[in-house]
């Protein structure tokens, strides 16, 4: 019986050694499985974030395309505005010369004579080779539509002579000589 117990003890020791080895392998497999699960969760979270980023980039791309489409019309308008301002810049010297002359000298004259005076100055300036906008007037150069509307609201008549008188009054440094109807 002792012999049987010893044999059984040796068998038990071998089985226990095999069990310990198998338990060690199970622990290693479980540790590897835990690592894989944590990596899998991280990769799933990263994939979800990347999908959200792709969706957000798609939305931004759609908005950018809309903005570019909207700005294409602005490009045309800006090009036209630059061309217009370039032309106005070329005419600025002559236009200002006419406006300055009208402020300085036209105050005491009637509306009909002012028109003749302005036409005469435009023709003389053109003969001298200074570029001037066709049909330029003191009102077009120095008039401000908002200010003129304010004058009309305050009771200034809306005829050309009265508006020119207002421009002369506010554009002169000293007391202008003028005939007011």
Structural descriptors:
181 residues, mainly alpha, Histone Acetyltransferase, Chain A
Can you characterise this structure?
Helices cover 82% and strands 0% of the residues. The chain is mostly helical and 181 residues long. It has a single domain (2-171), classed as Up-down Bundle (Histone Acetyltransferase, Chain A). α1 crosses α2. The longest helix has 104 residues, at 2-105.
List the helices and strands and how they pair.
Elements lengths: L1 H104 L5 H17 L10 H5 L2 H10 L5 H12 L10
Number of strands: 0
Secondary-structure-based class equals mainly alpha
User: What is the fold-level CATH name, i.e. the topology?
Assistant: Histone Acetyltransferase, Chain A
Put simply, the count of helices is 5
Distance between the termini: 146 Å
> Would you state the CATH class?
Mainly Alpha
- Taking Cα atoms only, what radius of gyration do you get, to the nearest Å? 46 Å
Proportion of beta-strand residues: under 5%
Order of helices and strands: HHHHH
Number of domains: 1
Task: Give a short summary of the structure.
Helix content is 82%, strand content 0%. It is an all-alpha fold. The chain has a single domain, classed as Histone Acetyltransferase, Chain A, CATH 1.20.920.
């Amino acid at each position: 019986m002792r012999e049987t117990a010893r044999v059984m003890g040796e068998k038990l020791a071998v089985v226990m050694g095999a069990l310990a080895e198998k338990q060690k392998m199970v622990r290693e497999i479980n540790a590897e499985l835990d690592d894989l699960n944590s990596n899998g969760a991280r990769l799933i979270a990263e994939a979800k974030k990347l999908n959200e980023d792709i969706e957000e980039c798609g939305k931004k791309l759609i908005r950018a395309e809309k903005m570019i489409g909207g700005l294409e019309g602005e490009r045309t308008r800006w090009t036209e505005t630059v061309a217009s301002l370039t032309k106005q810049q070329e005419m600025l010297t002559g236009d200002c010369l006419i406006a300055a002359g009208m402020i300085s000298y036209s105050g005491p004259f009637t509306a009909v004579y002012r028109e003749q005076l302005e036409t005469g100055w435009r023709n003389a300036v053109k003969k001298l080779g200074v570029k001037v906008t066709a049909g330029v007037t003191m009102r077009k150069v120095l008039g401000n539509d908002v200010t003129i509307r304010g004058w009309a609201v305050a009771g200034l008549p809306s005829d050309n002579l009265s508006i020119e008188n207002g421009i002369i009054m506010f554009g002169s440094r000293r007391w202008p000589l003028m005939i007011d109807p």
